[in-house]
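> forwarded from #structure-qc
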């Protein structure tokens, strides 16, 4: 039987996304936003998936259709652990490598991400987000797994990009990038006030960019103390 446009999903003229797909994306975003808000307010371990489903006015199975595990509701954005490998793959290998091309690409990727979050207001509640992770063993474990996956993906991308790269050095760079993330996360926590009200984004962005430059400069040229 031929599907009607309503069942098949009418493509959006501007985005090419069908009506059904747009509805699914809106539902997914609603579930994610409500879940994150509830987790940060009450604690991850004190909110059930059933409560999230009720708040979003959907069935529990609908939640799991979008998010295979409860932790996925919280760690919805995957770019922080999958993005670095993609940035590496998109970095051309010059005929005569001058060195530092990959670190340059990773710094650019990191800066783009942090600038986007700062300017969209996502970091206004970042401290509450980070505190929710620290208070939940389940979220801490998932974050560790995500970080481990990030390093593994980076190593894979580095070796695929240039077979001449030593696996040992690929692992070292991936580990150093993970350490850089951790250091910059701590610096961001220091820069952001406890209350999101009155956050001076220009000041935070300028200070954080200086920290990013210093950290990636050390990755690029080696740490000399």
């Amino acid at each position: 039987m031929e599907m009607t446009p309503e069942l098949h999903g009418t493509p959006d003229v501007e985005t090419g996304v069908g009506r059904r797909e747009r509805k699914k994306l809106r539902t997914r975003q609603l579930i994610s936003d409500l879940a994150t808000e509830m987790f940060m307010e009450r604690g991850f371990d004190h909110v059930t998936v059933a409560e999230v489903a009720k708040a979003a006015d959907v069935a529990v199975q609908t939640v799991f259709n979008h998010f295979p595990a409860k932790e996925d509701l919280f760690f919805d954005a995957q770019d922080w652990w999958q993005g670095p490998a993609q940035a590496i793959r998109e970095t051309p290998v010059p005929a005569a490598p001058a060195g530092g091309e990959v670190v340059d690409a990773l710094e650019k990727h990191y800066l783009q991400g942090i600038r986007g979050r700062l300017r969209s207001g996502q970091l206004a509640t970042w401290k509450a987000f980070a505190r929710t992770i620290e208070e939940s063993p389940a979220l801490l474990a998932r974050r560790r797994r995500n970080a481990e996956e990030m390093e593994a993906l980076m190593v894979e991308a580095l070796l695929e990009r240039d077979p001449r790269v030593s696996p040992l050095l690929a692992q070292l760079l991936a580990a150093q990038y993970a350490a850089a993330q951790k250091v910059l996360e701590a610096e961001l926590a220091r820069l952001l006030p406890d209350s999101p009200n009155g956050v001076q984004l220009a000041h935070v962005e300028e200070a954080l960019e200086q920290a990013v430059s210093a950290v990636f400069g050390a990755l690029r040229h080696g740490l000399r103390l």
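QC bot note: The chain has two domains: 15-73, 77-221. Confidence is low (pLDDT under 50) at residues 1-15.
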